[in-house]
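Entry 12.
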Amino acid sequence: MSQFKTSSSERTSIHDMLKDIPPNETKAVLGLSTCKSSPAILTPTTPVQNDDATVLKTSSRIENLKNWSISTYKCTKQLMFEKLGKSSRTVDAELESQIEQLRDTQRKYLNILRLARSLTSHFYHVVQTQHALGEAFSELAQKSPELQEEFLYNSETQRNLTKNGETLLGALNFFTSSVNTLCNKTIEDTLQSVRQYEAARIEYDAYRSDLECLSNKPDAPMGLEDAQHEYEVHRQHFMKLRAEVAIKMKFLDENRIKVMHKQLLLFHNAVSAYFSGNQTALEATLKQFNIKIKTPNSAFPSWLEQ
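Predicted 3D structure (tokens):
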């Protein structure tokens, strides 16, 4: 009986001791671990794959940076040698003449745009002054019976001038908007292609110079084949961009002539009709070019419209 109590107390003390041991260590003591293999030999597949992807991505970035650095160095060297007269450059005389003419055309059209905007701004203030003057004449006609007739016909004259002026403003705004689109969007889009073409020309000449330099060496260097490959790649890219620029400039010239023919005709007819006092011809001009004629004072929207 005493033996039973002793063993029972021992069991109780062991149970109490196990309670104080952390669960992981308890499993180890009792041999109840559910792991079928050691954690040290488990293969962490996902972390390794992520590491591989990171290494590949980093390697790709380093390679791109290396290629960009080499290309930048070659192009800078080519430009310096061209300025010093130590290297030749590929010249397409006809295309470069057209490009220079296009840039000169853009400069001149931008000057026309600047002047047309200035004219529109000044004329806008003239119209607003005429409107205010007409209102002042009308108010004085009500308060000055002795000069009522004179004030009234002056007020009516200013109102007619204001109405015709707002019609002309519609034509001027349409003209400036169209010329702005032509200069800053249509022509600029073609010039962006021209800049890409010029950059490709420098790259092509840089790699061509490298190939010529390697070809002239008698020991047949190991990099000759790579140089030939790079030269061919940049030559094809340069030829492709040159063809694209030539086509774009052709279509641009046709579009420019068509747009400016319409806009110059509009400008001439609208200005001539306004200053000759031909209101009917002025309104007909705007209808001919599908320009919406604004009602007097429509340039000032109410606070609800704003």
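Annotation: The helical segments are 2-20, 23-30, 45-84, 93-143, 148-215, 224-275, 279-288. DSSP finds seven helices and no strands in the chain.
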